[in-house]
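Glycine receptor subunit alpha-3-like structure dump, as promised
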Amino acid sequence: MERNVLTVLVFTALSSVAQGNSAHMSRNYTLEFGDIPGGHIPSFMLFRRLQHYDKRIRPNFAVSRIWVEVQLYVSSISSVSEASMDYILNFYLRQRWNDPRLSYTDFKSSLTLGTSTLAEIWIPDISFKNGKGAAYREGGDHNTLLRISPQGDILLSQKVALLLSCPMDFRMFPFDTQSCGIQMESYGHTTEELVLEWAEPPMEIDLSIRLPEFELKQWGTRRCDNMVLTGNYSCTEAYFKLVRRFGYYLIQAYIPSILLVIISWLTFWINPDVVPARISLGITTVLTSTTLTAFSHGSTPRNSYIRAIDIWMLACSVFVFAALVEFSVSHYIFRRQTKFSRIVRRVFCRNKFPSTSNQPPQQVPAAGTTPETSYINPSNPQLVNGQLQPRARMTQEDVSKLHQNFARRMDIISRFLFPGLFFFFNSVYWLVYSTAYDA
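C-alpha cells r here:
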C-alpha cells in the first residue's frame, strides 16, 4: 500500500514540472513572436504567397521581358593548362531580378531564406557557354544565399567552381598573352523574354590572386549575344588577360641553349687533327640541343605553326650543327694529300708554291729594260732577263702544308664568324619579341 502511494506522489511531481516548462516555453515564444511587426511569422507570410505561385512561368509573363543583373566576385584563378586549354575559376555569382508575385507589405525588412526555397520559385536559366563541368564539389551545403525584399526584388548569390575552356594562341610562346573568360547566357529564353546585363560594378577581383606562371594584367566585361536557329540569346562575358612570366623558360631553356652554343665554339681552338676531342664535343652538343628542343615542346599542345621558342631552338641547333660540319670540312682538308683546283691555289697560295708550267722557254722582248731592271711578276711565270722560266713543281709535302694552313685558317675565321652571327641573331630576336611582350 505504501509503495503505491509513493508511486502516485512521484508521478504527480513530474507532471507539475512538465507543465511549468511548457508554460515557460509558451511565454518565450509569445515574446519572440510579439517582437515581429504585425505579429506574423515571416515564413508563414511567404508560405501564403507561394501557395498560388507557379514557378513554371517567368515574372511579367505576356507583359514585358525581364531584366536580370549579374555580378561576379572572383576569388581565385588556378590550374591554367596549356595542354588541355582550360582553367579553374572560383567565383561568387550574384543575380538580381524583380518578381512582383513575391512582394509583400506586412513586413518591412528583407527575408533571407534557405536553399530549399529555390525549388519553389522561378530563377533565371543561366548556363555557362564555355564551361566544361564542375571543377570539384564544394565542401558543405552553405554556398547559396537567397534574399527577397518587400518590393519583390530577389538576390541570388552562389559560390561556384567551374572548369572553363580557354582557347589559346602560342605563336608568341613564351612571350604570349592569353585571354581567358567566362560566358553566361540564358539557355531557354530569348532576348524578347530575358535580358542579361552587368550590374555596377560588374566584377570584383580578389587582389591576392597569384598565379605561378601568369600575371593577371587586366580584366573586364563585354557582351557576347548569340544568334542561332532557335533565336537570339542574351549573353555576358567576363575576360581575364593573362601575361606569361618567361623567367622559368629563360632559366630552363634560353640560358642553357646559349651556353651550349658557346661550348660548341670550343672546337675551333682544337687542332683539326685531334679527332676524338672534336668529335665527342660536337656530337655531345648536338644531342643536348635536341634534348632542349624536346623540352620546349612538352608544355604546349602539338600545334602546326611555329612558336617564338621554336625559332630560337632551331637557330641554336643550326649553330651547333654548323660547328660540327665545320670540323668535318676542316679535318677533310687537313688530311687531303692531292691538290685542289687552280682557284683555291690562287686564293690561298699565291707567291708561296709555284705551279708547274709545260711551256718551253720563250724569248720576250724587253723594250726599255735591261737585265738589271728585270723583275718577277707575281701573277705570271717568272720573267728573268727577258725570258719566261717554268716554275718549280709542288711536292706532296708542299700540298699537305697548303691544306693544313687552309684548315687552320678556316678555324681562325670561324672563331670570329660564328660568335658574330650569333650575336646578330640575338639582337634581332630579342628586339622583335621584347617589343611585342606585354609584361
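The first strand starts at residue 66 and ends at 81.
lmk if u need the other ones
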